[in-house]
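Protein 1 of 2
SEQ + STRUCT:
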Amino acid sequence: MTFVLQAIKTHVKKYCQKVYENSGVNLFWSIDNSLQVINAIKSKRNMVSEINTFDFSTLYTSLPLHLVKNKLIGLVKKPFAREKPTFIVVSRNKAFFSNSNYNNCLYWSCDVCDVYFNFC
């Protein structure tokens, strides 16, 4: 499931990059690690007048699970609706959207993704 989520994140990131190129509006607010935050702060050092820190350790445990699930499933459905891929191809070390068949891979349709995310 991790590879499926990474494929979805990659798709959303590319979509948001196109939106940013066309409108200047940043819709993608996700980081892979703390180094990205440090580099962003360093690049904006002269533009920032104040930096605050917050403790988000209990943020996710306080979110309503049904809301998280519905938002995640909605996010999963967007690439299928927009790009019309048949499935997400899952191999041993990656996942990607496709309409083609590959040997020794699993295939997750939009409905299969929905079932798995509902289960989790």
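Protein 2 of 2
SEQ + STRUCT:
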Amino acid sequence: MHEHELRRRVVTEMHLRKWPRIDAPCSIVQWVREVPDSDRRQEYHRIQERLTDGPADDPVASASFVAGELDRRVRIVWERHSEGSSLTLFFPGRGDAWSAASVAREAGELLLWGEAFPGAVVRATKIVVEPSDSEIEPLVPKAGFARDELISCLIGGKVRIWSDFRIQSDGYGHVLIAGNGTDPGDLSRLVQRLQELGNYRNKALLGLPVAQQVAPTLHDLEARLGALGQRVTDPEVTDDSLLARLSDLSMELVSLETMINFRMSATSAYATLVQERLAELGNLPISGFASLEDFTQRRFLPAVRTCQSTVDRVRQLSTATARFTSLLRARIETRIENQNARLLRSLERSSGRQLRLQELVEGLSVVALSYYTIGLLSYLAKGADALQQAHEADVVIAALVPGVVASAWLIVRKLKRRLLAEGR
């Protein structure tokens, strides 16, 4: 078959992003990073070199997803995302995951190996999974949770979680999970969704500092636009100066919009994913504790709304600036049209005067031409009279005057028409 060049990639994509089964007890460590394009290949090769089974066989899948086993039965899942990647290590058995030293004893240098990957860490999480509540509760005091910030609820019906979603002294966020008899496949799916919720939440919140950073600039641009609107009626301010200042403001606004557009769009997309994951988890509150939904509604949504408000302000300011520019250009064009109309009326009056003057000159030209023609004819008549010794020259000259004037007028008129016809 002649396959489409993207067929295998899109089909493979539907089978990626899946975690292995989680058999409690176990510990999970995950890093989510922003990785520059220049380090992508290095990151991929570091994983391939460490896999127990060797490099992945499927080049399409391995380009964006790797799942395998490392030393001492430690499983690994690596995913490449549009803005970076996530690396997840699954440590089997029970251990004190909060101590870097104890994790190192359990899995050698794997924790340090994972921390040394290229890129900037957006989120790092240590998760302990135990079979039941009774086995996980003794670990709660060791996790370093702030009691007034502690979140505990049920997800997927009976899986219970504990976390305060803070960065602890070891640089990681801590999460405790009790499976409570949940099937390992379902437990894996729920924990993965829980992690995706937190990862997308952190990525979405990357837009908040950007929104806060550009807020003073937006205030300044709005104030400047308002000041320009007030100066429209000032007779001392010319349209050219207004248009120049408005153009400068528009360029600054375009630059600002270009700078924040990607981050704000990403925040909106991640926020949608957070809401979807929250709905999929179906968390049930537990009396005395805040739930995932409470945490999200109270802290996450206001930050997302701030980012959306920034986008709306930029859009409204762009619309107002474009409208102001359009109105100012319309006013300038109207003034130019009025000036052109006055100029045309002035030209029309000037042309009328020139036409009347031309007609006057034309009449005078007929008279002058007739006068000189009669003068020439008079010489001829007088000469003929002198030859014939007759005295009828004055009568002949007088009789010729009307015909000569009429002939001169017809000749001038014919020449005028010919010139006008050639001008067209």
